[in-house]
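Listing 4. Sequential folding, example run.
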Amino acid sequence: MANSIFDRLRNWFIAPLLDSAAQERLTLAERQRDYRSGVQRRQLKVRPNQHDDNVVLNYTGLVIDRSVSMLFGKGVDFDLPGEGDTPEDEFIEAVWRANKKEITLQRLAILGAEQGTCYLKILPDGIIGMDDIIYPRLVVVDPALVTIGTHPDDIENIIRYTIEYLTVGMNGKDEAHKQEIERDDGQVEADGTITGGGVWWIRDYVMSKATSNRWQLVNEQRWEYPFAPMIHWQNLPNPVDVYGVPDVTGDVIELQDRANFVASNVSKLIRLYAHPQRYGRNLGAISSIALGPDEMPVYNGTEAEIRQLEALGDLASSQQFLLTLRQSLFDITQTVDISSMTDKLGALTNFGLRVLYADALSKLEQKRRLYGDALLDVNRRLLTINGMNPDPGVIVWPEILPVNESEKVVSDTFQLGAGLVSKQTLAAEYGRDWEAEQERMTGEEEVANASSNNIGSLLLKNFTNGQ
């Protein structure tokens, strides 16, 4: 992508400063973002003034969109300890509402699926809620701009986050900014004791021509809590690295390129051979000839003839290969390909759906563990900052698969008859307010009894009157 943030970062200052591993992550981040957004490698070379037959089938973007929809498409709820709406419940709900919870979660999921790692920064007293109260601000940080520093012997022991990005200064010139969020582990004294430490520092640097292209410290702030103001988590588990695994990996990008190559060639074949190729014999001396797709020339010569090249094959094999590539890409990414089951939708049962979605549900469960644990940690930090009980409770995830209601009713009726479930539990599963329904049913029963008694009285009266 020309003139993208990646080009500017790499060309201006990132390359001389980052190590080879960081440069490799930046290059990979650029490619993954381009492929998610549909900016993909052109498979056929196009000469100047030549027709462009390249086709881009953005399956990688579709994979990420479906993954994000499965994870946060129906939202997520937090169930904190305590009965009813506790102050902690109200505070967490207000913070997430002020930070546009659904949009923030969607952005985190998209960046995580694209880059493999999610980052969220907490800014105390950073946003005003609908009740005019100031709440902590939750900032989604672009993973392409972050480098994580870990202890040499423990990748889970985070000691530093470094955020580097480029802006335009007041003078209209490019400025490089760097923020280091670093843990201070204290100082080892002569007797082996450690003094100080256990705190985090936030340091901001600027580099430009005005600073002779050197990093200059412009702000230093002590973070007053035992945890960092930044939190990260993996999109999919990676047991050997601090960075997670994206939904779209290198092998998926290769399949995407191959699918685009086949689709582009099919497009070119259709363009070239959409109309049969004709040729003439013994037409004689003529000044011009019209051979449009809807025209047929007529000649009087006894020997003149026009023939047509017959196709020696069809596109069925190419189209089948393209379908195979598509299905392979969706299989590798553990994504359900709806096009492969359109003729079976009416016959699918609840059990059949779960079998069909087995891989996708397995991937979803992995993501729910990683994202869920991180979101609970965010809530724990928010509660600590506000001086409340830091217990974040649990996350309540919604049911993701569609349900065949007739099958569910049969199953629920059986369980109710067998004494395996209560009416109140089933009412909750169907979204009914049990107490309200009880009151309604009691009222209906009283009305029915009253009507029955009135009918009985009327019959007795009529019988007495000889009717």
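-- end of first protein; second protein begins --
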Amino acid sequence: MIEAPTPARETQRLNALHELRILDTAPEERFDRLTRLARRLFRVPIALVSLVDRERQWFKSASGLDASETPRDISFCGHAILGDDVFLIRDARKDPRFFDNPLVTGDPRVRFYAGCPLRISNGSKVGTLCLIDHDPRDLDDDDLGSLRDLASMAEQELAALQLATMDDLTLLSNRRGFINLGKQAVAMCQRLERPISLLYFDLDDFKAVNDTYGHAEGDYALKSFAKILRNNLRESDVLGRMGGDEFAVILTDSSEHKAREVLERLETAVSVHNGLHKRGYRIAFSAGHVELERARHRSIEDLLAEADARMYTQKRAARDSLAGITLSRSRRASPVTGEFIK
């Protein structure tokens, strides 16, 4: 086994890592989603966001691995942070640096490793986003590009520790964070030639909830809808609160047909929520969905704009339909007071 040499400017690198104040913190969904997505896209048993400390590599996210850290002197990531691009080991048993490494001869039985360095604002490489398989394998150019995209998303989340990209109320990405993650998700799906769809939501008559029941109840409704999204979407999908009562979701590897199925599932989940929680109003939403087409959508902003427009078209159609029903009823009978419906 060959231990990785110490990087240049190691003191500066470690100081930058420690200033992030991320070591030994609790798991976070924004990092866990990336490692779950990596496992699914690359079909590997293990994906990690690994941070290389003075004497250990510590895992901010470990999908498929129970350990929270391993010694640095036996780490693959210690080698990966020495370079500027993906560090690739196709078969560790045939590599003189790793063939007798305890991580190869014992658990987790590393045979294949691919780690992309994670840089922060001062250029320091503090860790990696890496893939591990129990069998030898290789990555082609498209795969390498996708791994770089995922690493870039992880770098953005590290930067988000200093920049406000999360919505404090719902704990989803805010508009800035959603667009940052969305750009990478779109680029990755385009490179892999897989479909990607965007859903745009607006809670119906939300202002009336605040006016009638108070802003605390309005906050409860927003948090409830965010929870419904998290509980009924795949762990690798990108969720965000765009502002006010508007939300957006990027469905990776999903066509417009799949997006319609997701909307039906969400409508059912909202109905179940309303049946369980009697608070004087019902949560309801309007939604627009669109599948990425390269000829029409040049950016994540184009997708957002079209899905937003479709959502408002649906909302207007629903209001016009409701107005027609109300007018028809008013001609037959006197109006009656009913329960407020969102």
